[in-house]
Amino acid sequence: MKVYADKQEGTTPESRGPGEVVKRLVAPIKDTGRNVTTERFYTSVELAEDLYECKTTLVGTMKNNRKHIPEELKS
Q1: Most buried one in 25, 47, 59, 72, CB count within 10 A?
Q2: What's the chain's average pLDDT?
Q3: Nearest to 17 by CA among 50, 65, 53, 52
Q4: How far is 58 from 44, CA to CA, in rounded Å?
Q5: Is 21 exposed, middle or buried (0-12, 13-18, 19+ CB in 10 A)?
Q6: CA-CA distance, 42 to 27, in Å (whole number)?
Q7: 68 backbone φψ class: left, alpha, beta (φ>0; ψ -120 to 50)
Q8: What DSSP assignment string belongs to the chain?
Q9: Confidence (pTM)
Q10: pLDDT tens-digit readout, 43-66
């Protein structure tokens, strides 16, 4: 288990983003066909697509003003 505590020694701002944190945490179960559940801070279309490429699905809440959400899903 890894604890996310914002800034960690030896990390860059890009590697501390919400999507990158989730990817680091799910690395041990990547390619196993499992599902990851996140809350709205971590959920994004980009993350879902990245995980899907690794045979991992994502379920999570999203605000409808997030980038890259298709219009038909916003209602």
Answers
A1: 47
A2: 83
A3: 50
A4: 9
A5: buried
A6: 16
A7: left
A8: -----SS-TT--TGGGSHHHHHHHHHGGGTTS--EEEE-TTT--HHHHHHHHTTT-EEEE---TTSTT--HHHH-
A9: 0.74
A10: 988 999 999 999 999 999 988 887
